[in-house]
Here is the input.
Amino acid sequence: MASILKTDKIEGVTASGTVQMPAGTTVQLVNMNGNAQSSSNTTSSSFVEIDTDFRTSITPKFSNSKIMIFCIIGLRLYNNGSNDAQGYYQLYDVTGGSAVSGTQSSLRHYDYNGSGYYEASPVPFNVLMDSWGTTAKTFTYQLKLTTGTGIGTNDDNNSTSMTIMEIAQ
Here is the structure.
């Protein structure tokens, strides 16, 4: 015979007030959706953050959790209408002051029609990482230009978002 447990609220017995969740359970989810109807760009050949509104923070509840980050960036490469353009993007840990390992990737445009810019929106990437304990961390994205006249965001269609999930282990 199956048992049924009905409850409106689960509270921890200890002073910490936390309850250990089964492995694979989503403990929390933080989401940021771009809502600016504008574009920003850079000509920097070094990685820079060009949109501080994109920053997303999470404070893990458990020190042994996994953290899954899903990121979509609306990007645009600019050129002078006759040359190719190339740039790079990466996920950046603002709190730790370093790029998130394995998230750097390139974006390239071959300008065959002389359009002057190339919209490559949206560009998705994601990463699974170990928790860093229970302190807050903030993430954003950074861009750099290697050839062309600029690389930037294209949020005309609200195409930029970041979702961070804490997953119990």
